[in-house]
Every structure is written in structure tokens, then in C-alpha cells.
Recover the amino acids of this structure.
């Protein structure tokens, strides 16, 4: 028995007992923190989020995990899993009025804010109207999607009357209000300057920025400067060493492709200017555990300011000298 | 009838047979013969000899390595694939809520629509109150119009009914009416079904749909873990002239073992492509490295040493791959969720995603995780495919907790 190792009497025993008691208190205090938030797994959220008495929940909520998500959205399950999908919880609603209006709500727990943002932006349509739900939302043709913190929410509505359509937005707002977390975008997005940014073009890429596995994941967005559309990215690497290595790999790829790589100094480290296949001119540099670049440039000058802004922000936020 | 076990003998036998037959059914053409001169702007730095096969009775000469576009967001990878001679691209109405079709359409328009084959998929059902209800013809026509607009084309080469889970669906009047109309109006040159089902449903889907004699192409799950009954079903379909497109070909292939020289992803793809009834495979690719890796399989002849390597790979992974037959579930007296824990291990070891494996494991109730296995001195669990379950469960628990 572990307690036998304690001295039978004296101040040491008292001190150890105190430590054990303190540890136990801390453990029980920590339980709510280490338990999954489980909002998506908690059916009560669907029942309490009813926007009005005109809607009722049909049956029980349902749950899907990575291993059986394909049973629900086969063909697209891999897409969610690639973004770190953890669990889907959903429910169906129907209008009390008997108009056969129905709503299906699916809440995807994506593990973190960045993943939820990534899924949302991938599905965001250019023409879809922006709604004021969650951190960002979009909707059209009986479809509404938003993300809040680590949750991505999809609502599919089959509604005949105009009156109930407003109810769907209210329902979405109600769900968003009850989901844990905050409404702020992922902090990684802040590395990319807002000035001249094309709204809605922000995306979180996994698998390879510019199709390069060594730039596996990061933020990308488009800018319009002097009438020219250009694209900027910030790749997030595990360490500064990995970031330097990624720049070297990129340079090596370009040289093998027959492109010239010229040094680009003054902003970040290990910078170069080159031509990216299918993407015109590119400038790229490294700061800390990040690789930043601007491509689709007809002239390098256009991208320099954006790249300098990115590197300045990274250095400020990450406290890099 | 219980499906046969996947044995080393069967694996080698299939491989030998398919190697012998594959050269007969394959048309190897130089990429440039199909493309002609690549358009400006698309790049032409890559050169590769692609292998082309005839997609069943459609007569389309498709690249053996084709492209599952679903997760892709970077068109540069598409352009590189085009330069390598890949000419068949698979997307769907609902991938990325249409953005995937938009990206593909934009890239292929630059390259030249007539030089490529596009396949998309329209969902035949929607969900209401958790139940799948078949779409009517009109709603599918509306979806098709949207898809064509996003793809910036007047037609697709192959139109699939997406994710058939009920063998009767392809025979439904609304489905047949929709497909007939799409062919008649020239919006789809050929039609088919896609399915990911398991067990007998897979076989029934093939056989029932074949009976209709209407569909031109099947898009089906096929990998070296596929049960013999599924392989036989696809062979029957191909004998009837139905084009076979294989998906989920790599089944979360494992990373190379130090002692093996052949990349398991490549080995798994090669296993699929060496089946003579397979016209093309559409592995999902998101970057140039994956593209190069998969393209590296093309044109490689399988010799005795390759067969040995593949067999070694099979031997290396067979005690880890769970076929999810479910026969082990009742064998554990402690009610450990063996199947889910195997899935967690596959996320880690197969997909190289430890976090996902751990997150999935940690969501298991404590009564169902492998804690019970840690002190189990008389395990009753048994796998008919030879996986050492108790060892694997302990391995999972030690690493995920």
C-alpha cells in the first residue's frame, strides 16, 4: 500500500499528507477542464436552443465519430478528417405549424479554432450572403453555415414559407450563443495584414501551400493592389529550424525546376525571389517558426510591402528580434 | 457466407495473376499523343510517360493514375498532373460545397476542356429526420446545372450517382429518368454509380445495378484489404463492359518500414492498378509530393523481387490492419471497444496523425478503452485475421494515455 511509505509520525508525515490532499483537490478541480467540452455531444443544447415555440426537436440527437462519419457524409468524410474532425452531433427540427418545414443541424467538433475556420472557409461560397452568427457565417438556398471557436455548424433547411426562414437564423444564433468558446478568428489569421485584403479569400491550408508538402499548413489570402490580384501566405512550421529547412527545400525545388533564385534581403531571413511554376513571381522569407511569401506577382515591388508587413507582425507577436 | 481470410497465399496469387494479365488490357500511350501540345501558361517542365486504359464500354482512354480532387485547393498540383499526362479528374457536387468544382473548372478551362475527362457526382438522396430520402429528378437536374456552371463546361464525361447505400436506388425511376435525360441532352456522356458500402451490400449493389444494364461506370472502394467477394463482383462488372474506377486505393497505407525499400503507398496503389479489371484509380492528392509518389508507380513492371517486397510489406502490416469485420467484438469479456481502438491506431500509424488517434481514444468511455487489457492475464479476444488484439490494445493504451 502506498501509504506505508509515509513515516508513521512527525512533521514529514503531516507535510506529505498536506501535499496529497492538495493534489487531490487540484485533481478534482481540473476534471471539468480535462473533460471534453462535449457541447457537441450534449443533446441539451439542441433542446434549449429552440428559437420559438413554433419549432420542435424530432427524436433524439445523433453522433458520428471519425470511424463512422462516412456513414453520414460519405465522400466528404475524408475532407473533415483531414482537418482534425473529432465528433459530429446533430438534430432535426420540424415546425409545429404542420407545413412540413424541417431543419437539420449538424455541429462538427473540429478540435480547435483553426480547423473549424479551415473547414468553414473551404465551404464558403463567393456569392453567399454573410450573416451575423458565430465568428463568421454564410448562407444561401436553405443552407447556413458558421463557425465558432472549435465548432463548425451546418444547417440545412427545407422550408416553404418566408416566415419560417427567419426562424432558421434565429435558431443558428441561439445555437451559436450556447456553444462554448469565443467569436474571435484564429490568431494565426492576424499575421496577414488586413489592408487591401480580398474579403472572404482567407483560407487555412493543410497538405501543402502552393502544393508543396514542405509548406504543409498555414494561412493564405488574396490581396488586390494596384489592380493586381496577388496571394500571400504564412506557413506554420514546428520550429525555426524546420522553417529554415522548408525555405531551403523550396529553393531547391525551384532550382530543379529550372528557375533562378536570387537573394532577397532586408525582410526576414534566408529570403529569395524566384518564379513559382503556374504562379508567376514569388518572394519568400523566414522568421522564427514561420515561412512567409507573396506570389502571383507580375512585379516584385508590389509584394514587398505586404511581405514586410507580415514579417513585422510575426516578429511583434512572437517576440522575435 | 463468410468471406475468406486475406492470406499471404491469396495476396501473392492475386498479384501474380494480375501482373500477367495487366499487360494485355493496358494501352500505353505517350502523354503527348493524347494531349498534343500543352497550352501556354500550363507549364511543360514535367515529362512522364503515362499509362492509358479504356474505361469499359465508354471507350474513353483514361490515365491509369487519375486524380481524386476532393481535398485539393491548389490548382498548381492539377497543372502538374496534367503535364504528367493525367487526364481524368474526379470531383463532386458537394465537395467543399461546390468550391472544389469551381477550382477544377477554372484550371481545366485554362488547359483546354477537350483534352480532359471530368467526372462529378450528384447526390441521389437527402436526409430528413435522419432518414435518407431520394431526391426527385427535378432537384437533381437543378444540382447538375449548378455543377456544370461551377465546372465552366456544358457537359461532364462521367456523371455518378453519389454514395449509393441501397442496392435498389440505381434502379429507381427518378434515378434512371435523371440519368437518361442527362445523357440525352448531352450534359453527361456516360453515367455511373459510386459506392463505399461494405459486406454483402457492396456485392448486391454491383449485381443489382448490373442487372439493369444501364450504367456505364462504377466508382468503388478497392484496395488490398478488399474482401474477395468485392473483387469478384467488380470482375463480373468489368466482364460486362462496365468501366471500373477504384477509390480509397491506399487504405491509409503505412509509412515504409526501415527494412522495406518500396513505399507502402505505392505498393498499395500498384496492387490496385495491377488488377486487369481496374481501368483507373483516383487517389486523393493534395500536393506535388503525393503526385510524384503515385506517378512513380506508373510504368513499373512487377518482377519477382517486387513481389517479394510487396509480400514483405503485407507481412509487415497484416498483424496491424483491422478489416473491421466485427467478429472480435463478442470475444472480449471485458467489453473493450476493440474496433474503435484499432481505428485510433490506424489514425496514428496509418495516417500519421497521432493527435486524431489520441483524441478519438480519449473519447471512449473508461469502461470501453483498453485499460482493462493492461492487467488482463487471460485474454479471450480473438481475431480471425490473426491480429494480436491484446498486444495492440495495450500498445494503444500506453501511447494514448
Amino acid at each position: 500500500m502506498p501509504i506505508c511509505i509515509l513515516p508513521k509520525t512527525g512533521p514529514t508525515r503531516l507535510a506529505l499528507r498536506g501535499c496529497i490532499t492538495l493534489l487531490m483537490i487540484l485533481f478534482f478541480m481540473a476534471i471539468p477542464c480535462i473533460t471534453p467540452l462535449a457541447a457537441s455531444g450534449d443533446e441539451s443544447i439542441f433542446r434549449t436552443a429552440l428559437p420559438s415555440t413554433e419549432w420542435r426537436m424530432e427524436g433524439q440527437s445523433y453522433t458520428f465519430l471519425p470511424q463512422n462519419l462516412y456513414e453520414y457524409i460519405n465522400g466528404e468524410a475524408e475532407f473533415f478528417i483531414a482537418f482534425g474532425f473529432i465528433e459530429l452531433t446533430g438534430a432535426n427540427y420540424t415546425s409545429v405549424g404542420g407545413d412540413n418545414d424541417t431543419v437539420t443541424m449538424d455541429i462538427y467538433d473540429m478540435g480547435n479554432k483553426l480547423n473549424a475556420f479551415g473547414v468553414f472557409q473551404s465551404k464558403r461560397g463567393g456569392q453567399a450572403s454573410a450573416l451575423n452568427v458565430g465568428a463568421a457565417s454564410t448562407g444561401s438556398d436553405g443552407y447556413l453555415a458558421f463557425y465558432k471557436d472549435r465548432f463548425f455548424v451546418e444547417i440545412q433547411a427545407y422550408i416553404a414559407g418566408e416566415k419560417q426562414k427567419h426562424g432558421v437564423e434565429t435558431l443558428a444564433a441561439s445555437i451559436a450563443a450556447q456553444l462554448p468558446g469565443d467569436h474571435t478568428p484564429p490568431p494565426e489569421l492576424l499575421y496577414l495584414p488586413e489592408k487591401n485584403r480580398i474579403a472572404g479569400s482567407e483560407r487555412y491550408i493543410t497538405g501543402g501551400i502552393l502544393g508543396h508538402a514542405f509548406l504543409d499548413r498555414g494561412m493564405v489570402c488574396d490581396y488586390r493592389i494596384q489592380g493586381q490580384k496577388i496571394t500571400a501566405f504564412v506557413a506554420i512550421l514546428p520550429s525555426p529550424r524546420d522553417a529554415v529547412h522548408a525555405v531551403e527545400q523550396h529553393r531547391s525545388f525551384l532550382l530543379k525546376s529550372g528557375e533562378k533564385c536570387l537573394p532577397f534581403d532586408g525582410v526576414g531571413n534566408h529570403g529569395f525571389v524566384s518564379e513559382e511554376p503556374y504562379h508567376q513571381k514569388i518572394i519568400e522569407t523566414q522568421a522564427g517558426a514561420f515561412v512567409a511569401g507573396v506570389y502571383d506577382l507580375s512585379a516584385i515591388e508590389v509584394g514587398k510591402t505586404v511581405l514586410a508587413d507580415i514579417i513585422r507582425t510575426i516578429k511583434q507577436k512572437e517576440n522575435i528580434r | 457466407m463468410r468471406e475468406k481470410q486475406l492470406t499471404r497465399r491469396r495476396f501473392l496469387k492475386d498479384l501474380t495473376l494480375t501482373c500477367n494479365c495487366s499487360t494485355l488490357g493496358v494501352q500505353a500511350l505517350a502523354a503527348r499523343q493524347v494531349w498534343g501540345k500543352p497550352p501556354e501558361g500550363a507549364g511543360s517542365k514535367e515529362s512522364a510517360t503515362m499509362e492509358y486504359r479504356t474505361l469499359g464500354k465508354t471507350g474513353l482512354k483514361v490515365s491509369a493514375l487519375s486524380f481524386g480532387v476532393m481535398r485539393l485547393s491548389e490548382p498548381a498540383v492539377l497543372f502538374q498532373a496534367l503535364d504528367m499526362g493525367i487526364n481524368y479528374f474526379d470531383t463532386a457536387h458537394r465537395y467543399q460545397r461546390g468550391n472544389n468544382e469551381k477550382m477544377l473548372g477554372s484550371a481545366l478551362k485554362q488547359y483546354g476542356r477537350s483534352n480532359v475527362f471530368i467526372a462529378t457526382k450528384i447526390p441521389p438522396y437527402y436526409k430528413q429526420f435522419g432518414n435518407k430520402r431520394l431526391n426527385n429528378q427535378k432537384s437533381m437536374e437543378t444540382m447538375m446545372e449548378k455543377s456544370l456552371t461551377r465546372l465552366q463546361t456544358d457537359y461532364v464525361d462521367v456523371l455518378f450517382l453519389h454514395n449509393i447505400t441501397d442496392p435498389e436506388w440505381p434502379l429507381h425511376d427518378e434515378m434512371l429518368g435523371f440519368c437518361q435525360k442527362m445523357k440525352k441532352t448531352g450534359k453527361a456522356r456516360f453515367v455511373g454509380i459510386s459506392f463505399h458500402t461494405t459486406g454483402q451490400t457492396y456485392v448486391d449493389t454491383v449485381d443489382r445495378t448490373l442487372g439493369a444494364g444501364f450504367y456505364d461506370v462504377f466508382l468503388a472502394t478497392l484496395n488490398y484489404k478488399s474482401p474477395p467477394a468485392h473483387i469478384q463482383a467488380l470482375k463480373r462488372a468489368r466482364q460486362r463492359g462496365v468501366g471500373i474506377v477504384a477509390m480509397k486505393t491506399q487504405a491509409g497505407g503505412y509509412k515504409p518500414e526501415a527494412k522495406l525499400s518500396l513505399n507502402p503507398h505505392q505498393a498499395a496503389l500498384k496492387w490496385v492498378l495491377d488488377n486487369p479489371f481496374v481501368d483507373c484509380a483516383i487517389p486523393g492528392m493534395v500536393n506535388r509530393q503525393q503526385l510524384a509518389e503515385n506517378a512513380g508507380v506508373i510504368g513499373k513492371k512487377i518482377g519477382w523481387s517486387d513481389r517479394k517486397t510487396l509480400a514483405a510489406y503485407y507481412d509487415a502490416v497484416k498483424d496491424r490492419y483491422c478489416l473491421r469485420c466485427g467478429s472480435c467484438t463478442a470475444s472480449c469479456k471485458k467489453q473493450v471497444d476493440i474496433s474503435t481502438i484499432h481505428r485510433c491506431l490506424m489514425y496514428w500509424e496509418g495516417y500519421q496523425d497521432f493527435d486524431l488517434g489520441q483524441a478519438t481514444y480519449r473519447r471512449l468511455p473508461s469502461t470501453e478503452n483498453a485499460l482493462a487489457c493492461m492487467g488482463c492475464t487471460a485474454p479471450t479476444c480473438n481475431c480471425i485475421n490473426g491480429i494480436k488484439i491484446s498486444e495492440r490494445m495495450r500498445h494503444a493504451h500506453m501511447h494514448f494515455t
